[in-house]
Amino acid sequence: MPASQENLDAQSLERYTQAAIRSSREVIRSYSTSFGLASNLLKQPVRTHVQNIYALVRVADEIVDGAAAGALGPNSRIEAGSQLDKLELETYKAMKLGFSTNLVVHAFADTANKTGITRKIVEPFFYSMRLDLLKTKHDQKSFDLYVYGSAEVIGLMCLQAFIQDRNFSLAEQDTLKKGAQALGAAFQKVNFLRDLAADFEQLGRSYFPNVNVTSFNEETKDRLVKDIQEDLALSAKTIPLLPASSKKAVVAAQFLFEELNNKIAKTPAAKLMRTRIRVTDIHKLFILLKALIGITPK
């Protein structure tokens, strides 16, 4: 192939990739205020990579719980499963080829290939998404597997974007991975607590093992809050190791979920079953300001 044609092909691919990146950026703008605000603190190209990761995760989640149900009806789990299978296979194919006709998948594959995200990390995510179509109650083993795939590996994917082209010792890499997994787990568990009643009443799901929604009490709530506090404490210890390009965004996310967990701790169990705990927009801006000026979790 003549060099001029190779250049044209490369330019076409780059143009297509930039269009894919813009489509993923629109996904995060449409679906996540908090995550979107925190991601704005990331420096490029880390911000783009994290947005690309989020977009794929969001699309998969919409297949399981959101838009797909609106189109297919609440009982169309077989078709939703088929759609999830197609998305998963297309993701692996795009990671191998470096191209997909699905713009969100193409953007994710571009990020995966540039940051070293492997199929080994991606597979547990799709496994957990599939569990939402198949399982409504969890024991401790399935809960741990679900949290790992639905949240901890997202932390590991983002970590790959944070530390690409950086040199860390094996011990430092291990510490960073444990911190990324702990922060991801804390995010997921906080959201489980915030949506405890809605998940049970609307979706028939109960994520926490041995937690009966109908008899949810202060003792149970305090135990779950303490578990989240331990996750957040572990993740906070790893923040000093993070590169400057990602540290402030992670700090903001850490502060946000610490605040949510603290509000849950102060909310009576009975009220928690009726109200979704939120952080006000003003308080979110305050959290962003703290991260911007360099305040870090203790």
Write up this protein.
This protein has 14 helices and no strands. It is mainly alpha-helical and 298 residues long. The chain has 2 domains: 1-115, no CATH class; 135-298, Farnesyl Diphosphate Synthase (Orthogonal Bundle), CATH 1.10.600. The longest helix has 29 residues, at 3-31. The radius of gyration is 20 Å and the shape is globular.
Give the SSE map:
Elements: H1 3-31, H2 33-39, H3 46-64, H4 67-72, H5 77-97, H6 103-115, H7 119-134, H8 140-163, H9 170-194, H10 196-203, H11 218-238, H12 244-266, H13 269-272, H14 281-292
Properties at a glance:
298 residues, Farnesyl Diphosphate Synthase, mainly alpha
Anisotropy-based shape: globular
User: Helix share of residues?
Assistant: over 70%
Most strands sheet: none
**Structural domain tally:** 2
**Named CATH topology of the largest domain:** Farnesyl Diphosphate Synthase
Unreliable parts: none
CATH architecture title of the largest domain: Orthogonal Bundle
The share of residues in extended strands comes to: under 5%
Class based on secondary structure composition and strand pairing: mainly alpha
With helices defined by DSSP (H or I, 4 residues minimum), what is the helix count?
14
Element order, helices and strands? HHHHHHHHHHHHHH
End-to-end separation in angstroms reads 58 Å
> What value does the Rg take, in angstroms?
20 Å
CATH superfamily descriptor of the largest domain: Farnesyl Diphosphate Synthase
Number of strands: 0
CATH class of the largest domain: Mainly Alpha
**Overall mean confidence score, pLDDT:** 91
